[in-house]
Design goal:
The protein is α+β, with helices and mostly antiparallel strands. The chain has a single domain, classed as Alpha-D-Glucose-1,6-Bisphosphate, Chain A, domain 4. The protein contains 4 helices and 8 strands; from the N terminus they run αβαββββββαβα. The chain is globular, with a radius of gyration of 18 Å. It starts with a helix and ends with a helix.
């Protein structure tokens, strides 16, 4: 009886746990272009992100944008689209939540709502340009071991 109750409790808690993922996504470049940065700029603009000055000319940085809001809080994000060696691009999501009660808090993991509002439009724009999403590192590790 205690064992069954413990199992029920564990399953209930894991079902209610938020699905968090790392604050970045990787994409494989299938397009043939000398400068991937041009594709990244176009994709970010098409996904509704304004562009900002970047410290590195190869990195595409977006202007801050509100991506979520709640009762007494809002979440703003900035994207960094970084070309990597070997034909890959990593998109970093730098988000922070501002609350009138607790001030500013950095977002270290993306929940489902934030992931959808930030990455789905960008992923669609990148896919149109020949960049294929690779999923999270955990997804790739699981695929490699199957």
């Amino acid at each position: 009886m205690v064992r069954a109750l413990s199992l029920f409790l564990v399953l209930t808690l894991t079902a209610c746990a938020p699905r968090l993922s790392p604050p970045y996504r990787d994409y494989e470049v299938h397009a043939e272009l000398a400068d991937v940065t041009v594709l990244l700029r176009e994709a970010a603009s098409d996904a509704g992100w304004g562009l900002a000055e970047s410290l590195d000319p190869a990195v595409v940085t977006t202007a801050p944008r509100q991506v979520a809001s709640g009762l007494g809080s809002r979440t703003d994000a900035v994207l960094d689209l970084v070309p990597l060696d070997g034909g890959f691009v990593r998109v970093y999501v730098r988000a922070e939540t501002r609350s009138w009660l607790s001030g500013r808090t950095k977002v270290y993991a993306l929940d489902g709502d934030l992931r959808r509002s930030v990455l789905e439009p960008l992923s669609a724009a990148l896919s149109e340009r020949g960049l294929v999403p690779l999923g999270t590192p955990r997804d790739r590790d699981e695929d490699a071991t199957e």
